[in-house]
Amino acid sequence: MLTGMKVIRARLKKGEEARFISHLDFTRAVERAARRACVPLVLSEGYNPHPRLSFGPALPVGTTSDAEYVDFYLDGEISAAEFARRLKPQLPPGLSLVEAREVWKGSPSLTSLLDTASYRVQVPVQPDLSLAGVEEAVQRFLAQEEIEVTRLRKKKGLRRVNIRPGIFSVETVELSGGRLVFDMKLVTGSLGTVRPEEVIEALASFTGWTLGKEGRRVHRTGLYCRRDGRYWTPMEKPHSAAGSTGS
Amino acid sequence: MDEKLEKVLPEVTKPSRYLGNEWNAVHKDHRQVEVKVALGFPDVYEVGMSHLGLHILYYEINRREDAVAERVFAPWTDMEELMRERDLPLYALESRRPVREFDIIGFTLQYEMSYTNILNMLDLAGVPLYSRERGPDDPLVIAGGPCTLSAEPLAPFMDLLVLGDGEEVIHEILDTYRQFRRQLRKTGMAVGRSDGVRRELLRVMASIDGVYVPSLYRVEYKLDGTIEGVFPVDPDVPARPRRRVVRDLDAVEGCPRPIVPYLDVVHDRAVVEVFRGCTRGCRFCQAGIIYRPVRERSPEKVKEIVARLVEETGHDEISLASLSTADYSAVEETIEDLVREYGERGIGISLPSLRVDTFSVGLAQQVQRVRKVGLTFAPEAGTQRLRDVINKGVTGEDLLEAAEAAFRAGWTRLKLYFMVGLPTETTEDIEGIARLAYRVLEVFDRVRSQARQGEKKSANRGQRGRNLRLTVSTSCFVPKAHTPFQWEAQLALEELRRRQKYLASLLRDRRVEYDWHDPDLSMIEAVFSRGDRRLAPVLERAWRLGCKFDGWSDHFHFDLWLQAFRETGVDPGFYALRERDLAEVLPWDHLEVGVTKDFLRREYARSRRGEPSRDCRFWQCTDCGVCPGLGVSLRLKSEQGFGCGR
User: Fold this and answer.
1) Do residue A98 and residue A160 come from a single domain?
2) Which ipTM did the prediction report?
């Protein structure tokens, strides 16, 4: 690490207006916003230097999120508050800055730290379901030892995968207006990724329900590091005792 | 609208093409403006967003309080299918209002092979295709861009065409439109309430310098199919509409606040134009005529615009654009200053086109970034004789020296660009292309063996370096209007193919890759680039048969085009393959481009004698007629010569 270099970790929100922006396009948009904001970005070496930014796990196109984390490698004296003040007005519509903090010493990169994503999923459903019925079915669904889904691999063709170990929780939030709302925590990142859509599809085939495709909405509510049975956001250093250390 | 769209977007590829909320996009309340303009680019988003002209007009219109400009691109085929299926009309990106609710739809005509997309977009918008069919509530359909100077095949579809530079005349068009409508309102009528009113608006527009209203001209033909003459319908209509020229590029802003796309577009960078026009005088080149004279922007203005671009966009690459940036008289000092100012911040400078000489390689080395992608040189023809015919002022030696400089500087990818089927081309000229390619290989081997010897001596055994990848690329010559070759015939398809094959047979080295353009496509381009109004039905027929995105080789259907010609009884050979008589009235002769037909005839004669002509920037006036004709003049900004190293 260069002397004087610091890393500021930012949490961005990706709203309705930006939900069709792909992950790659999102990274470029953030990089450009940072350049417009004139924050002191550290550049990579080489004759085509580019700013050092690192991002958390990719968000599928069409998904909104409250928790897109970015590490900015910065050179020189700039506080997290000043950083936030400069970046905020430069973010394009649909992207907004929620918080920015200097990361703790020795923090792993976002990709090695984050292993869990939480989602709120809204699905249009057939009219004859009851909340109790749904809750009961979800319990039975989760009680299975294996939940197999089919994944299409590039070049390798179809593959059957057991996603049950990657489903940490599924909670039924509400059933109203023909919509079923779930909160789920799923594995993400280097350990493998389970997509919320896969869980919904598996649930549909398990129960035989008709879960509408059109109007289905997925929102990422958080990204975490799962340790000691607790979920830590990347803004806090995971530790055994309760409480949080900011910076 | 929004609801329907929200349902469609998850189903299409690259939905962010259709959003309209990129950084710097302008959103205005339509109730607060008097004139609404939809700027239509008849190709997909990534192509259109790479076009500087669109950003300039967007900026010019939106800086007015009384007007709004929004964008609309050709929806990709998957999007179009869903739009048609679900009754979603073509909409402007920013407001998501249907395009047909706008006052003006302005298309840009960048290349002939986008014409079917224009018809398709009008159809998707629900606007009648033909100018004469449009009624009271339909928008004014206008077009600008280089092709308007020879866009007769589109004439029946267009209400008016803008000739030449658009950034000044657009304001006159908007002012005129607004005034006309205010007056009508006073008299209690709406624009185009009846045919007469719409026609009256077009008449008023026709009096603007740079505006051409095709419906106010009548074309008469001879028995042999050639044109007798093009006549204004009455004495009030200007006999020869003139091309507009911005005299001073320092007086206009370019676009200091361009929209920053999310998508990786074709040219993903900020652009500053360093000059407009080119007087090198290549005889095949239309841009070399229709953007005359050369008008340079001062280095101060260039740097001022760059500073704003950096601040407003966050791009990491600034492109110094022009038809030949190495010819900018202040190119070295400008690059030096920009690299010094922005290099440390990781913002690079790029040069879109290189001249074939060591000076250009030096510039490329200075800006470094081009290194990754390799260098492209365009000698255009394989022998000196043919290069003299086309007046491409470079020699084989220039090319070899430039290649050597590039190899010494570390480039290992080189692309050479030629044309096949140029006037007077012989077998020897085709062989000359291969010969040049092989001499470039020899230069590379020599440079490399010298470098290796140097390494041994210095005991510094670095990497051996990669082998050369040389690409030879040929396009098919397409004769263009307003050039000294406008009278030439295009070579027949079989002959073009034969020559391409012959060249391919000569380029048998694993380090050389040969790629060539589809002659079928070039033939259709040749038909429309010198076409007249009788081609309009062919265009419509081809579009109805399903032609669109013709510039995309995988969407181009030659068989459908041939069917369209057959069904409309039009012979494509008449337009593509026929050599014109020098005295023939050409379909674009009634448009005053500035350069005289007499100059073109002289250049044509010189080409036949193999006589080169020189550039008026470095030599004397060639009497092309543009300066006295349009009341403009050559503008150079540096006292220190021309940065051309000559």
Assistant:
1) no
2) 0.88
